[in-house]
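User: Hi! I'm working on a homework problem where we have to compare a predicted structure to a textbook description. Could you give me the structure for the chain below?
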Amino acid sequence: MLRNRIGHTMLVTAALVASLAVMGVSSAMATPKGEYAVFAQCPLSNPETTACLVSRSESGHITINKTEVPIVKTQTLQGGIHEHKGVETFIGAANGETLSKTPQKVPGGLFDLVNCNEIKGEGFWEKIERGACEAIFENPNSTGVFATTELAAPASSIGINETNLLIENGTALSLPVKVKLENPLLGNECYIGSNAHPMVIELTSGTSGSAKGKLGEISSKAEGGILLIQNNTLVNNTFVAPKVTGCGEFFSFLLDPIIDAKLGLESGKGQNTAVLNNTIEQAGAGIVKEHE
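Assistant: Happy to help. Predicted C-alpha cells:
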C-alpha cells in the first residue's frame, strides 16, 4: 500500500513538472530580455496594462522651507499605464516597489536640522524640552540624517499625463508622498507628511511658481520599440509640507515641535520646491511581452 502511494505521488509530481515545462510557467524566467529588461517590473499580468514605464530621477533636489536635500542617488518610479480614451491611469510595479525607497543624505545632519538654543524660556517645560533637545541632537555619535521619499497612497493615486509633459504645460506627474527622516535617535516613524496627510507634488515640465522645468531630448532605442526622453526637468513650487509626526517615538511630543520649528512646518505654497532631473523610458505592453 505504501509503495503504491509513493508511486502515485511520484507520477503526479512528474506530470505537474512536465505540464509546467510545456506551459513555460516561471515568473522568474518570464522577464523581458535585452534592452527591454528595464521593464522587468512592468505589471504585464494585469490585462489593463497597455504600456510600461520607467522614470529615473538622477539629480535635483527637494527643498522644504529652507532645508534643501539634494538628490544624489537615483530614485526610480516604475510600473504600467492603462490608457483609455485619452485618460491615463498608473498601475503599480509587479513587485510592489513602484517608487524606490532611496535615502538621500541631509546636509549638516542633526546639527543643521535643529538648534537647541532656539528653545527659549526658563520655565519647567522649556527646560525639559531644551534638555531633551541637547541630549538627542547634540550627540556627536549620531548626527547623520537621511531623507527618504515614499509613496503615501496606492500606486493608482499617481497621476500621469504625457501630453502635458510634451507641451510643457500642466501636471505631467502627480505624486502623493511622505518623507521619512532616518536617524537612530529619531526612531523608525519620523515623517514629514503621512498616508492621511500626504504631500501631493504635482510636477510639470513647464513653470510652477518660481521653478522652471523643461522637456528633455526625445529619441528611441531597441529599433524604435522604446521611447526614450532624456534630461527632463520636472518641477513644483506649490506643494504644502505638513508637520512631522512620530519623531523620537516615545518622545515625539517633545521632538516633533522642535523639528517643526526648525523646518518651518507646516510650510505653504511657494516655500517648498521639488526639482527632478530624470530619464523616461516607455514601451507598449505587447512589444515588451514579445521580448520575454
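For your comparison, note the following. The chain has a mean pLDDT of 86. Residues 90 and 106 are 30 Å apart (CA to CA). Good luck with the assignment!
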